[in-house]
Design a protein that fits this description.
It is built from three helices and no strands. The protein has 114 residues and is mostly helical. The chain has a domain of 63 residues. α2 runs antiparallel to α3. The mean pLDDT is 77.
């Protein structure tokens, strides 16, 4: 399974085709943490070898604030996915019959492809 397929599975709904903005934003914010932490550790290691250590506490205090914001975003995104679970497309076929008052019933079949 490729990285592209994994990202698509993480950011799409139950049907695997329609992208969900909540999932996309949650994934993007989580992936931003990786380069930010790599930069912080790299600055610390560079400062250690040069002899002027980077104030790692100051850097990670700001990272902690960022992670709190990302955590709040993940919680609200998860809640939005939970509350819209009934309306999310699941890729199954659905049929609807529409009846019009005073006329011969119009049978309309709506088929959504998987």
């Amino acid at each position: 399974m490729s990285c592209v397929q994994i990202l698509k599975d993480v950011t799409t709904g139950k049907d695997g085709e329609s992208f969900d903005i909540a999932r996309v934003v949650m994934t993007a914010n989580t992936l931003v943490l990786i380069p930010v932490l790599v930069v912080g550790v790299s600055l610390f290691v560079y400062g250690w070898y040069v002899g002027k250590p980077f104030p790692l506490n100051d850097f990670f205090d700001s990272i902690l604030k960022f992670e709190e914001g990302v955590g709040a975003l993940l919680v609200t995104g998860s809640m939005s996915i939970f509350f819209k679970r009934q309306t999310e497309p699941d890729g199954s076929l659905t049929e609807e019959t529409v009846f019009t008052k005073g006329k011969q019933p119009d049978n309309v079949t709506v088929v959504t492809p998987p």
